[in-house]
Amino acid sequence: PRPILLTRHGESCDNVRGRIGSDSVLSDAGELYSKKLANFIEKRLKSERAASIWTSTLQRTIITASPIAGFPKIQWRALDEINAGVCDGMTYEEIKKNMPEEYEARKKDKLRYRYPRGESYLDVIQRLEPVIIELERQRAPVVVISHQAVLRALYAYFADRPLKEIPHIEVPLHTIIEIQMGVTGVQEKRYKLMD
Ligand code: F6P
């Protein structure tokens, strides 16, 4: 069985400030994670010559992948974080204060809520289809370095979790979720590399 390793990018400066979306670089903790991740991946996939590293097109995932040596890296726009549209770069507090109707609408139906000029979880799930098809076709391990909303959707697909749970699945920072697909079904391991 070949593993799929899912991880969010290392903590970004916007994560620290509580700002959603955008395209910031990593915090010091995030930089440290990128090194620990590289170490982990290089050991875990040592004899896996055909393995590959998939990132989004946002710099926080590309920077997180950068210390990993020895494997090809592929950027997918479909792995970019949910597009928060007019709310991109805001904190949840700012959205609540300045756009209370939007805040409430999202709280009520996070799965279907679409940010004005942005995306919903359902949109994200749909655009991930080609990524999932390609992941299913791979014979070798794949490391996916992406973002919270996207990884919730990918994880739910492989772990067979219901649609309505997707926006609420826990995908913490600095943690690798390893999924193994074998004959007896799907097995999962989590590696927390930092506190
Ligand atoms: O806060 C990090 C982040 O990846 C944001 O960029 C994104 O908007 C958010 O998480 C998605 O999580 P939620 O759907 O819970 O707001």
UniProtKB/TrEMBL annotation:
It comes from the Eukaryota. This is CBM20 domain-containing protein. It comes from Rubroshorea leprosula. The chain holds residues 562 to 756 of 756 of the full protein.
